[in-house]
Specification:
Radius of gyration: 37 Å
Number of strands: 14
Number of helices: 37
Distance between the termini: 43 Å
Largest sheet: 6 strands, antiparallel
Number of domains: 6
Shape: globular
């Protein structure tokens, strides 16, 4: 097949980028790499298109060259294409060099036996050293850009095979002196130096003249494959943290350097540092990190070499350089930073973090630096979290958290406040006004007050519990803080029981200092307040988490009172989960009576079976065996008896098991008819399902409880009628329906599964008004229009139209609700919104791109929903 055209390649590249894995698995995937390499030599494709093809090979080398032989062949072809380029200027030389390097590195083909490696490495070194390769290879105008690209390629290869350029250190050092402070060359030399030091230290050898060896003294070429084999562990040039001190002691500290090698090493580091100010901030930070790691723990190499850089960097506004400076401080401590330097740096971080115009990421960075500030002489055990000694409450007064801050900034400031509370514990005992602890208690009270708002955003509740966890983690040893925190959380649950899932999650993650008193407080709160019926499921969920052997009589009394209100399957299961928790806690006689009552009282057969099972287990098993029977199941042991196997299978058949749902449920097209809105549900199954029961729960209190939908049998491939789900909105607003399915399988098992939630849109609630008599439509609409005021509200907006115009839009979305129509420019629309609201629309004087809409409603809450609906009609099509 001949070369592909530009349009064909553009289509293939677009399809590939949309889903690389799917494209490579298709019929064209196998030929993509071969066609790419072939068409790079075609004269029919323009250079920009060829550059796009090379960019693809740089982004997805793993998909194009999945193994070492394919990568070797690709690199060879790319080098051949590079050599065959005409001597005129071309935009392909640099991408070809990068693509060949990427293919070898990503495909694992970089080794001494690779022919492509043997061709690429001398070429890169020749370009990097500025050697004249002849005008037939490239014009003089491209030599400087190609030299910078060669440096980048060599740095990539050194990153992939640490130690590969160990034999080139002397050459790179001489080249740096000749070329000046070129950024890629400086980073290449620093990386190669760091890797050589680490690998030689692990081998217990010195530098062996690597820093002074020139190109002429290299035997067998400049590539140190032996050193690269010893450095098989890929050292990351931008690791997020310094090596541990133990690694240094058994690593770089073991490197034996002769006086001449130590002198040459200091000269090389000084040469790199002296010109580092000419590099970009990111490159400077990387250079400092590499050299700091190279010298940390190395005997005979004083960190004073970095001192001139500190004088320059202490006043920097670049975050990357500030981070590198803190990394140097963590590495060398008081050997490099005096107490005055530490105080200056700490004060600068504190003042910078208080700047009101800082973006949130920058503000969080400064706070992170303060929270993890590396002190010269930290007090306390290693690894213990504490505020810096010089960071007092007066200096941090502007960093105290406030309810007005962003959540992430508030939590970071709260973390700092907790550390200050630990430091200022002694001062609080002396009657200090407005101590950090008092401020902390006021802040937590404000967070709880916002979280207690009924119907408030979930983010406020989440923030409150995140802050509570942070305080419990940082101040676990201070009862003076934990006692009011426990009381405040109990009051929060009393005000808003719907936060029970947050409380359960908090109890699972906090330590015993807060966990035990909070469990007791919440158990007392639940037992003393049975609550209304809608809060009962939250009380039962909380009690299942906090119930234990204490306060048995109060807990059992609450359960007996709650059993009368557990009328549906979900509440009954929640009640039985509490009984299971009490069983595991070893509660005895009173629980047996309760289980017998539940076996007679519960209406659902599944609940009755569970109650009888728990009663039998309680009556026949001792405490340890009962805990094992009710605990999480381990790997199933081999069954030695067929009777045991049969009994286990019988028990499994009686239990309702959770399983992945073989059911797909979706909302079908709506029909505006009847007295209440009805969702038409489309259901599909992947396997036969019998006695299907779909249970729906509305998130929030927007709708009245929904009834279950029953289907006797569903089989895959058979058409099914839509399932009708009547809705009873308490307010005309969209909602999410949580869906749970209970069904039987062909094997006789009863299973339950959670289905994806269904969304009830605002338009799903639309109902038409009764049809007025013929000829009275306009009077009927005007009467409705006038009746909306003064109780309701009126608004006007612009509704954009698609290319089909107003008549098509009304026909598609508003046809059942049109009272008066004068197509194609004017329509009067009346919509009834349950339970007792109305929405009236005047669409008049339509223009080509839109129509002005006047709307009235007798319910203020409907106005923003109606505006969003009308503005989205043209996009809905």
């Amino acid at each position: 097949m001949g070369p592909l055209g530009r349009e064909t390649w553009a289509q293939r590249l677009g399809t590939f980028r949309a889903s690389p894995s799917a494209f490579m698995a298709g019929p064209e995937g196998e030929d993509l790499g071969r066609d790419l390499l072939s068409d790079l030599r075609s004269e029919k494709l323009s250079e920009p298109m060829k550059v796009a093809l090379l960019a693809l090979s740089l982004e997805y080398p793993d998909q194009l060259w999945p193994d070492a032989p394919a990568a070797e062949a690709a690199a060879t072809s790319l080098l051949d294409t590079l050599v065959l380029l005409p001597p005129r200027p071309s935009a392909l030389r640099r991408p070809l060099l990068l693509a060949a390097t990427t293919a070898l590195a990503a495909g694992g083909a970089l080794n001494p036996a690779s022919g492509a490696s043997g061709r690429l490495l001398p070429l890169l070194l020749g370009l990097a050293s500025g050697r004249d390769l002849g005008r037939s290879f490239c014009p003089a105008s491209e030599q400087r850009p190609l030299q910078a690209t060669a440096w980048e390629c060599l740095r990539e290869l050194e990153s992939c095979r640490p130690g590969l350029l160990g034999g080139c250190l002397g050459l790179l050092r001489a080249l740096l002196g000749r070329e000046g402070p070129a950024q890629p060359l400086s980073l290449l030399l620093a990386l190669a130096l760091r890797n050589a030091l680490v690998i030689q230290a692990r081998a217990g050898a010195g530098l062996q003249g690597l820093l002074t060896a020139g190109e002429s003294s290299m035997e067998g070429g400049p590539w140190n494959w032996m050193l690269a084999e010893e450095g098989e562990v890929h050292l990351q040039p931008q690791a997020p943290s310094w090596p541990a001190a133990e690694e240094d002691e058994c690593g770089l500290a073991a490197l034996e350097l002769s006086p001449e090698e130590a002198r040459e090493l200091r000269a090389t580091v000084a040469q790199l540092l002296d010109a580092s100010y000419l590099l970009t901030p990111v490159a400077q930070a990387q250079l400092l990190w590499l050299l700091g790691w190279a010298l940390r723990g190395l005997r005979g190499q004083p960190p004073v070499l970095f001192k001139p850089q500190l004088v320059r960097l202490l006043g920097t506004a670049q975050l990357t350089l500030l981070h590198a400076m803190l990394a140097l401080k963590a590495a060398f401590g008081e050997a490099l930073f005096t107490a005055q330097d530490e105080a200056l740096l700490l004060r600068r971080l504190t003042l910078a973090a208080q700047h009101p115009a800082l973006p949130l990421p920058t503000h969080l960075f400064y706070l992170h630096c303060l929270l993890n500030f590396p002190e010269n002489w930290p007090l306390g055990p290693t690894g213990e979290e504490a505020a810096p000694l010089l960071l007092g409450s007066q200096l941090c007064r502007g960093l105290l958290p406030s309810l007005l801050h962003e959540p992430m900034a508030l939590l970071a400031r709260l973390h700092l406040l907790c550390l200050l509370c630990v430091e200022d514990e002694e001062k609080e005992g002396k009657g200090q006004d407005r101590s950090p602890r008092h401020y902390l208690e006021e802040l937590l009270a404000g967070l709880r007050q916002r979280a207690a708002l009924d119907g408030g955003p979930r983010a406020l509740a989440t923030l409150c519990f995140q802050a509570s966890y942070l305080v419990a983690h940082c101040l676990a040893g201070q009862p003076v803080v934990l006692i009011p925190l426990t009381q405040g959380l109990a009051q929060l649950y009393r005000a808003r029981p719907a936060l029970a899932p947050h409380f359960v999650d908090l109890l699972d993650h906090v330590g015993p200092e807060l966990q035990e008193p909070l469990r007791v407080a919440l158990r007392q709160e639940v037992a003393s307040r049975p609550g209304r019926e809608e809060a009962l499921r939250w009380h039962l969920q909380m009690l299942a988490s906090v119930a234990d052997g204490d306060a048995q009589s109060a807990t059992l009394s609450f359960l007996r009172a709650a059993a009368a209100h557990c009328t549906d399957w979900g509440l009954q299961q929640a009640l039985l989960r509490v009984c299971r928790a009490l069983l595991r806690a070893g509660v005895g006689g009173g629980l047996a009576d309760l289980l017998q009552e539940l076996a007679r009282q519960l209406e659902d057969p599944d609940g009755q079976d569970h109650a009888r099972l728990y009663y039998i287990l309680l009556a026949h098993l001792a405490g340890p065996k009962l805990g094992v029977a009710l605990g999480p199941s381990l790997a199933a042991p081999a069954l030695a008896s067929s009777l045991v196997a049969e009994n286990q299978g019988f028990a499994a058949a009686l239990m309702v098991q959770e399983a992945p749902a073989p059911i797909r449920l979706s909302v079908g097209p709506r029909r505006a008819e009847g007295a209440v809105p009805v969702l038409r549900l489309q259901v599909e199954v992947l396997e036969p399902v019998y006695s299907l029961e779909l249970r729906f729960r509305v998130e929030g209190q927007l709708y009245a409880p929904l009834g279950a939908v029953h289907v006797p049998c569903l089989c895959p491939g058979r058409p099914t009628r839509p399932l009708l789900l009547p809705l009873q909105p308490r307010r005309p607003a969209p909602a999410r329906l949580a869906v749970r399915a209970l069904y039987s399988t062909p094997s006789g098992l009863t299973c339950h599964a959670h289905l994806p939630p269904l969304l009830v849109a605002f338009a799903d609630l639309f109902l038409p008004f009764p049809q007025p008599p013929e000829g009275a439509q306009l009077d009927f609409f005007e009467e409705l229009w006038d009746s909306c005021l003064p109780k309701g509200t009126e608004s006007r907006l612009w509704c954009p139209l698609g290319p089909e115009g107003l008549e098509a839009l009304v026909s598609r979305h508003l046809e059942p609700f049109v009272v008066v129509a004068q197509p194609p420019v004017s329509y009067l629309v009346a919509i009834r919104l349950p339970p007792d609201s109305r929405l009236l629309l005047r669409l008049e004087a339509a223009q080509a791109d839109g129509v002005p809409v006047a709307l009235r409603t007798d319910d203020w809450a409907v106005l923003p929903l109606a505006g969003d609906y009308l503005r989205g009609l043209s996009a809905a099509g």
